[in-house]
Amino acid sequence: MRRAIVVLLAIVPCVSAQAGELDGHYRTTLDGQPTELILRQQGERVEGQYVENRTLRLDFRGRYDGQVLRAEISDPQSGLLLANMNATYANAMLNTSIAARDPRNGEVLERQALFQREGAATATTPPATGAQDPALVGTWVHEKIINSGGANFASFNTLMTLQLNADGSVTQWSRSAGGGSDWSYDSPGEVQYSGHWLSQGNMLMVRLAGATDYQPAAYYRFSDQYLVTESNTGKMIWQRRR
To answer: Which of 32, 89, 150, 226 has its CA 20 to 30 A from that of 47?
Structure first.
C-alpha cells in the first residue's frame, strides 16, 4: 500500500450512529495519487472498497459504533489482511489512521489521511483573493498540563506551537516535559507538519509540504485575545506568543 500523507488536525466532533450515515463515495489525494473509499453501512456493519489510483481495488470491512470506525483492508483474491484502519466521522469527512504492513520487510507504516465524501463542498484550490485572515498571522501556543495527586506527585506538560506566517507558510511543532519525585523527561521538540495555509470563512485550510491540495484543518474563532480551534480531536485554546 502506498504511503499516505499525514494530515494533522481534523474536522469537528463526532456524531451519533445512524443507519447509512457513512454511505457514500469518499476521496482524497495521497502521495499525489487519487485514493477512494466506497462505503455501505447497515447498522454497525460497514463494507465497501478501498481504491488507489483507480486501479488497485481492495476489500473494506469494519464496524462503526457512532464514534469510531474500525476496519480491515484486505486483498479480494487471497483474503490477505493488508491494513487496519481507524476513523472518526463528521461533516461528510472521515479522519483516518491507517496501519499497513510492508510485504517486503514486514515493517508497519502508520499514516493519517482526511477523506471527503463526494458531493460535499471541497476546497482544493486557493481563492484568487482574500485567502488569508490577517488576524491568524503570528505564533500561537497551546499548553496542556497533567498533574497526578497523592504521595507520588508527577506533572507532564505538552506545549504545541503553531506558526502561521504572512507569506502563507505554516509549521506546527510540539515539545513535552515532565517529572516526578525520582524521574524527569524533556523532549527536544518535534515538527509535526509544515506547508501552506489559507482561510475560508471560519475554516483553516492546510496544504502539507509535497501535497498538491489544500485540506480542511479546523474550524476557528476568536475569543478575546485567544484563538479557539475545534476538530474531532477536541477544542483547543491558543494564546498568541509575543
So the answer is: 32
Which pLDDT tens digit goes with each residue over 30-61?
666 788 999 999 999 999 999 988 889 999 99
Spatial neighbors of 33 by CB under 8 A, at least 6 apart, are: 2, 52, 53
Residue at 149: amino acid letter: G
- The pLDDT mean for the chain works out to 78
Q: What is the DSSP letter of 153?
A: -
Contacts of 51 (CB under 8 A, 6+ apart): 35, 36, 37, 38, 57, 58
What residue ranges of the chain have pLDDT lower than 70?
A: 1-19, 30-32, 103-104, 120-130, 147-154, 156, 179-188, 231-234, 242
- Give the DSSP per-residue string, 58-105: EEEEEEE-SS-EEEEEE-TTT--EEEEEEEEEETTEEEEEEEEE-TTT
Instruction: Determine the residue type at 6.
Output: V
Q: Are 208 and 5 in contact (CB under 8 A)?
A: yes
Q: How far apart are the first and last CA of the chain?
A: 44
Q: Is the pTM of this model over 0.90?
A: no
Which helix (H) or strand (E) segment holds residue 238: the answer is: strand 234-240
Residue 48 is predicted with a pLDDT of 96
For residue 89, CA distances in Å to 66, 96, 127, 145, 198 come to 8, 9, 27, 28, 23
Q: Are 203 and 189 in contact (CB under 8 A)?
A: no
What was the pLDDT predicted at 137?
A: 94
The bridge status of strand 138-148 relative to strand 108-117 is unpaired
Are the C-beta atoms of residues 238 and 228 closer than 8 Å to each other? Answer: yes
